[in-house]
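In response to the reviewer comment on reproducibility (Comment 2.3), we provide here a single inverse folding case reported in full, input and output, so that an independent group could reproduce the run without further information from us. The structure tokens appear first.
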């Protein structure tokens, strides 16, 4: 298995942010790099999860389920789009 190549991200911080991050890293017994990677990775996972997941109220959920169970007949515009897609293949 090939070794993982470490990647680098360079940041420019104001003094306040730098000191804040250094203090938080020290409080969690991590290096600044470890703290920043773990914190950024956790936040990135949260953002990705929020954008991948859709939360619906009960009425919206019922409308989606109804549309899946009882799909509308394709209109002319949808038929033309499907034909164009088929012609591209």
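Designed residues, in position order:
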């Amino acid at each position: 298995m090939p070794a993982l190549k470490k990647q680098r991200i360079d940041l420019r911080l104001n003094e306040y942010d730098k000191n804040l991050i250094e203090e938080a890293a020290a409080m969690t017994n991590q290096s600044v790099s470890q703290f920043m990677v773990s914190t950024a990775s956790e936040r990135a996972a949260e953002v990705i999860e929020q954008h991948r997941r859709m939360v619906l109220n009960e009425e919206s959920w019922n409308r989606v389920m109804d549309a899946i169970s009882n799909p509308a007949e394709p209109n002319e515009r949808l038929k033309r789009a499907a034909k164009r897609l088929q012609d591209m293949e």
